[in-house]
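#dry-run=false #mode=assembly
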Amino acid sequence: MQRFANPARFMRLSAALLPWCAVAAATLIAIGLYGALFIAPPDYQQGEAVKIMYVHVPSAWLASLVYAVMAVASAVALIWRHPLAHIAAESAAPVGAGFTFVCLVSGSLWGEPMWGTWWVWDARLTSVLVLFFLYLGFIALANAFDDRTRGSRAAAILAVVGVVNLPIIKFSVDWWNTLHQKASVFRMGGPTIAVSMLWPLLVMAAGFLFLFAVLLMLRMRTALLRAKLRALRFGT
Amino acid sequence: MAGRKLQKSFTGEGLVCRRGERLVFQGVAFALAPGGALLLGGPNGSGKTSLLRLMAGLAPPEQGAIAWDGAAIAEDPAAHRARLHYIGHQEAVKLALTAEENLAFWTQMRGASDAIETALRRVRLDARATWPARYLSAGERKRLGLARLLASAAALWLLDEPTTSLDAESTEVLLTAIAEHRHAGGCVAIATHAPLPLPSAQHLSLTGHTTWRQA
Amino acid sequence: MNGFAALLTRDLRLAFRQGGDVANVVAFFALAVILFPFGVGPDPDLLARIAAGVLWVTALLAALLSLERLFDADFQDGSLEALSLMPVPLEIQVLAKCAAHWLTTGLPLTIIAPLLALVLHFDAAGYPALIAALLLGTPVLSLIGAIGAALTLGARRAGVLLSLLVLPLYIPVLIFGVAASEAAALGLESRPHLLLLAALLAGSLALAPWATAAALRQALE
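#status=ok
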């Protein structure tokens, strides 16, 4: 199983892919932003403030997606004891936490003009907040041991536990929210959303996805080089 | 336990051990026949404890295989645990429990036995059986840990520095116990700095990264 | 099952001999609850309204407080290593330790919770549901907490880290526990919430020991 994806092959592959992904990310985000800011219509109630959505919603998607990627990488790392998978999970975590943070901040900025308050205990926002703490826990645990591999393995188990718990937490938060219903929950209109609003949203999401790929590969490459450096210095 | 069950051999081949990111040893091999004894020597950090832990199945070797009677121990860890006694350098003694309670607990965890009194007598703790372990000296706690070997049967003994803080008389008790165990067909592997007079024991010196010779 | 009983007995005996632990958890629970009237004022109506939430949040923190010890003592003195080499499956041993933890924290908390509810003017109609919810919810706290305790063994600043890992996972228990207690106090049906708590308990009984055992094995490796 060790040969499945060896570090050297990963370094070659990622070096080849990186520029393409970077270009794709930059282009898609540029097109998406243009579409969002200049083509998509302002909301008849919210005005231009609705355009925060084009950052908020894709980052919410990415926040969950990255956690899933992290959990899959962790499971692979635990089952096949593959170091590269540990590195992938640990490299993904801060990026995911970043998207989560962007989602929270943009949600808060959007909330101010909409509800006149910086924070609403909306079910979705609350779930994202909990997700943010799950990310922080993973990062803290991975770095809490003097023995690096201990941290990796403990954090991998936590990611798997977290992914099992996430739907339960999501469900309980929704439940709690309906019990204490007050704030008008903003919902993306699903299929009723106008095409001129939908395409910039999807293009932005694709751009964010490539951005994630770029950041993940960069972080993994750095982590591998660091490991190599340690190996050279401490002669193992 | 029936002697027949003890007629097994214990082998390891091409073992590579990594602790964290550090390579501890590679290319280590051993083979123990029933009744065999293996003394692990080598300087600090050469991996004596690590090898014992691999033998116990506490950690998997990075490469190589450990087998009991031809079957890899990783295939049936429960069976392997049932056949071994591992005494690490910590005694696993609870200070708030009496000597007797401590020993009885470990024995029950291995499926009960009523040899507790005998075991305590043999390690000369019978007079202190009802003392909370916190009143026992370091040597006495060590003896209490070793009493686990005597209170329930297991084919394979893995001992990490068993003679540390033992007096001459207690070392003698331990050596006798090991001799009896081997006579009954059991195997023993001991990590030790002190030379132990075990008849016809194999020696395995771990010297760091290189393969080691067997004497 | 012999091993389960042996380990449970040993842990209870240790808790009993080292007495202070149970008393500390209960005292923390009581004291933390009593702080609330000082914080929000002694208005009975307000206290009654927040009573269920206060009791649950404080119970959560009290349970958390005692988690750090769950495996740590055994880890430090070599017992955990020896336990992991016993023929009894580690998952069963984890269950035994969680049972002991619950008997020495969750159960005492459940027993004194009604007294504290009284101090907070909690509605009389809510008591049965409060107790039922605590009986169902506190074992989940022990089971999920065990995962965190196992993961943080040997970590730097394990205590703070443990709260960071475990508290988000406690949110569902908190939500359904409070919901059950409050529903009854308001004269509503508390059964669905209690059933959800029971489902959480069943789920964590099945999954948590497995995750905890995996975490312990990697800690010992």
